[in-house]
Amino acid sequence: MNGPGGRPHDAALRDLVLHVLDGVDETGVAPIVQAGHPALRAVATPVDGQLSSDELGRLLEVMHRTMRAAPGVGLAAPQLGLPLALAVVEDPGSPDGEASRVRERGPVPFRVLVNPSYEPLDEQRVSFYEGCLSVIGYQAVVPRARRVRLRCHDEHGAPVDEELSGWPARIVQHESDHLAGTLYLDRAQLRSLAASDQVGARWLVEPRPTTAAAVLGFPLD
To answer: What is the pTM of this model?
Structure first.
């Protein structure tokens, strides 16, 4: 069996990871690439021994710090310019009790998703505003499955097969989509697209974007 970086493609990917790790700032945070970067439109390479345990651990630490510093509730490796099927998620939840109830948004502890995939568990979809750390300055309403089945491995190689609903399911869909070269805008109601300015920010206040749908003219599931 080849060790870390044994195949030519794997060696190039490992070198790219090490380059990112060497380029973090003094706080250990890496730059987040923005829409237009090729890594955000590539199908990520499955994690399959390209990195040593120490290298993978260092990368996950950088991803965790970068996600928190942004701040965000999820970060995929392509957002660091790395075409690797790896993501981290963590959500402290919302202080707005009504929004949390409507959006089914509870705290999500930090977790690692290695080679994740998901499938909807039924036909029910829900629509809420989303943003993305790689599309700074905008948000849009995205219809997504309310319930999904997540399959992946954790950072220790243990298999994960579980059902998620509400906001945790939305986060998993958003981050897993990154690994397929898909941005949230590809799934969004584009008439809902709003800048993160004083006008656009008001649409985020409502637990469900009913006023935005009426004013901007887009359907809600």
So the answer is: 0.94
